[in-house]
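Z., the sequence and structure:
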Amino acid sequence: MRGRLPALLLLCIAAAAHAAPRISIIIDDMGNNYRYGREAIDLPGALTYSFLPDTPFAARFARAAHAEGREVMLHLPMEAESERRLGPGGITLQMSEAQFRTTVRNDLASIPFVSGVNNHMGSLLTQNTPHMDWLMSELNAHGGLYFVDSVTTRRTVAAKVALQHGLPTTRRDFFLDDDPDPDVIRRQLARAFAAAYRHGTALAIAHPHPTTLQVLAAVLPRLHEIGVELVPVSQLIAVRLQRNPRLWQASLSPSPQVAKSSKR
């Protein structure tokens, strides 16, 4: 079964009558594990890697990814409704504005070659407009960064506030591996590819889990067979904003999939 493309992907080929759809895949939670981090960097194609701040291997693998022409992001830990421990570099509602901004600056400095930021957890913080104002203002001050809302709660205002601050921004459409079963991951990939065919683009988030890496290693070299182009997140955002500057308001489905995991 491993390596077999789901039937839905073959249907996508028959349905394609326009320019190749584009998909971006962010590999989150990079930096804590050497083995799986190395395997993630070794995957083929224009993947984007998002690194947790001040983790043992983040800087090393960020440099490695950049050297191979991959895009690097900061996976910024934000307070969740679950009160789960954030780890180094987390931002919370309890922080003063000065503490908040200093933490964000230090997090950005800990990851070399950062092009953009997305939230790690954040189901509580991304609902808070004043704190999202602080964040987007700080990101703006660093120039040239984009923001991806990981959509860990339906009540998020993060992408909306980012757009108000003039930051290039978009929202995550699919989580690939909340369920680590390989068949589920393949089905999620198929959904992302089908959505890209319908809408022109799709943005998926995955993690450096063993089964995820196995599925991606099998599927990514075959994207040409289904006519899907894997692009860095910055390119996907540019396409979306060119088509519609307020595209953040519209997800690929009425309600973006929000993970049920307590870590969100």
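Residues 7-245 form a domain with the TIM Barrel fold (CATH 3.20.20.370). The two ends are 31 Å apart (CA to CA).

Let me know what you think.
H.
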